[in-house]
């Protein structure tokens, strides 16, 4: 599999080949995972959060189940506060997947359930950030990643 050079800071990852698949080490979950294009984006974004946004690794949750509209789903990345409330939800798409209205709707379903202040949507090439506007009771797009550290 040819992995894209992403529009995120480069990082070194532990990768190994077994049988007929490639695995990448996940420092948060402490295990090897199948290296897919989406996992490549997720691992780079986690690296970005820790190395550039000051997020502590123990504040990151990955691929946890959430019920949305009576359907079980999994968010990609969440950053939690010390009180365990969610400050950021990140939806990752594979680099070859275009960001579209369906991806935004998926992220908003997670936000509705988890009540996050910030949202991020990325395919590793494009990144969109949103902040909850308590006055207007809606998310508004912001230009840069939120300061979370």
Describe the protein.
The chain has 149 residues and is of the alpha+beta class. It contains two helices and eleven strands. The chain has helices spanning 37-52, 101-114, and strands at 15-18, 21-26, 31-34, 60-62, 65-68, 71-74, 77-80, 86-92, 118-122, 127-133, 138-142. The chain starts with 14 loop residues before the first strand and ends in a 7-residue tail after the last strand.
In short:
The chain is an alpha+beta fold. It is about 20% helix and about 35% strand.
Q: Report the total helices.
A: 2
Shape: globular
> Would you tell me the structural class of the helices and strands?
alpha+beta
Distance between the termini: 34 Å
Largest sheet: 6 strands, mixed
CATH topology: tt1808, chain A
What is the helix fraction of residues, given as a range?
10-25%
The count of domains is 1
| Arithmetic mean pLDDT | 93
Q: Please mark out the parts with pLDDT under 50 across 5 or more consecutive residues, or reply none.
A: none
Keywords:
149 residues, alpha+beta, tt1808, chain A, globular
Secondary structure: elements and pairs:
Elements: E1 15-18, E2 21-26, E3 31-34, H1 37-52, E4 60-62, E5 65-68, E6 71-74, E7 77-80, E8 86-92, H2 101-114, E9 118-122, E10 127-133, E11 138-142
Parallel strand pairs: 8-9
Antiparallel strand pairs: 1-2, 2-3, 4-7, 5-6, 7-8, 9-10, 10-11
